[in-house]
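User: structure tokens for this one?
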Amino acid sequence: MVLSPRDHSPGKVVFPMTQEERLRFLLQALLAERPGGQDLAIPRRPGDRRRLLRALMNTRPPNPIPPEVLAVQDAFLQAELAEKNITRLADLTPRQPGRYLWQGDITTLAVDAIVNAANRQLLGCFVPCHGCIDNAIHSAAGMELRQACAQLMARQGHEEPTGQAKLTPGYHLPCRYVLHTVGPIITGPVTRRDQALLASCYRACLALAEAHGLASVAFCCISTGEFHFPNDLAAQIAVDTVSAWQRDHPQAPAVVFNVFKDEDRALYEALLR
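Assistant:
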């Protein structure tokens, strides 16, 4: 049976679909999973519809994804990816041998792996459309990323310790993999243990990347922002730890220090002279 491309009922997938049709299909499918969701009106403005989809993806638990929903999500996110301005390592100039600095959206970096500043549950941010990097990465990667993280955590059987790392596919990100690490949360003066745990985050990610033969890794500013690690000290620890690792490991990957704020760019520029 051939369905109309404008039949967006959950469970019915039609190809080809326009991007707007995919969006509406996904909204209806994800709303139908929620109690009373089918009674909610879909926003009229395109930007509001896209924001609602992100919110629904952010709050969806790592339950099985119906194949037809997954297929439409994949096509939708790949179409979005094709419209993004992707930055590759070859586009950048090293500040020091094997070390780069780039300011921008980490979800548009085409390196072997990007680093996600995760929480201890390692399931992504459940706050709708939150501004943290965890939310941004999961939103761009798609719902499979939360499922992959849930499988890792189920096998582990406990929350992720601070200063370690896990590896998952990147799914619909331009990178191949995501390295998830939990940095220290600062609630008072920074202690030596806090500093050691932050350095451990960088070493754990580099060790895992090296073990998987990855040639390039992009680090976000781990533990700054939501976790309140001072930006200047965090940057110093990041550069010192990466530099020492690369010095001691000839096969270490190239590292991109990814920053978003001008403040962090200035800090890394001074450290990478």
